[in-house]
Write a structure and sequence with these properties.
alpha/beta; BirA Bifunctional Protein, domain 2; Rossmann fold; 3 domains; 9-stranded mixed β-sheet; 15 strands; 40% helix; elongated
Length: 393
Amino acid sequence: MSRLFMFEKPLGMRDTLPNLYDMKHSIRTVMATEMKQWGFQFIETPTLEYYETVGSASAILDQQLFKLLDHEGHTLVLRPDMTAPIARIAASKLLKDNMPIRLAYSANVFRAQQREGGRPAEFEQIGVECIGDDTISADGESVALITSVIQAAGLENFQLSVGHIGFVRAFFRQILGTEERVEALTRYLYEKNYVGYRMHVGGLALSSIDKQRLLHFLKLRGGEEVISEAYSLIENDQGKEALSELQLLWEIITDYGQEKSVKFDLTLVSHMSYYTGILYEVYAGNVGFPIGSGGRYDLLLEKFGKPSGATGFAIRLDRLLESLGMNEPIEQVICIVFSSERRKEAYRLAQEQRQIGKKVVLQDINGVKDIDACSNQYNDITFLVGKAKEAMK
């Protein structure tokens, strides 16, 4: 084995050590329990999917897909997200009774990084999809649920920003005229390059009034009053339907009692190109990227031959842990150090402790090289070593 690669990992890949693994498991369990209480059922999908189906349907850029060939020459991908695989399952097996289905998942996804820069190429998402429901009530439920799930995980200080990609496109289209010009300006929003946005607007061949409308658009952030401001910027019916949906969404969120965590940001767009309506991102302290995101994607299931409304969200577990500070206390583990003549006694004691919910490590005295190191690792040590106990001290 080459010494160069003995301890190296592929770009963007991470090891999960015991303490972090336990924390992830604990947080994941709490979040999954909350999702189940809202009536969502968990499913699993294959790690490998066909490129021509899930790979092409996904909103992840082609250069970020991990591709490989099977023995028959078919191109496969490591799943880059969970929404497309779940859409495949829903269209092929589950959407048969014309009733919405509520599905949940917790799984790793894979996105290649050209330059790591601290960004993982494999990370875990936990989320839900509500498929077969095109009402704003379903969007409101998703917003309320992601808020409730994050609170259940123990995070209180976070902000959920809500926008509507339909409004952005309708507003830009009535001023700019062509899809090409709409896409060019939208790209600055996706990159959150507001300086570039302003410079781009300044260079457009538009009236001063239209330029001012585009610049004022950047200020559409805040509470319910933002919707009224947005109405004042549009000149015809284009965009009014989207604003009506946001108004209804706000009323639904208020009914859920989650309005304190939600703000509007009508400049919000997403790298997930399949979003068609309401979308949102969740931000928290200690993290420079969204810890979760979601939205409506009414056209995705058409790619699998089953047109249907759908909405959902995904939470990045690694970013959530980072925002929590990852400072949970390490669970107490009892270590029983035993010698051969007291082995049965040690086994019996360990079994008794485990039956009452304690975590117990059994350690043969002959396997301990340094008792001080053992004491540093376990904060509760029981010695069953007979006469050797005094020597250990």
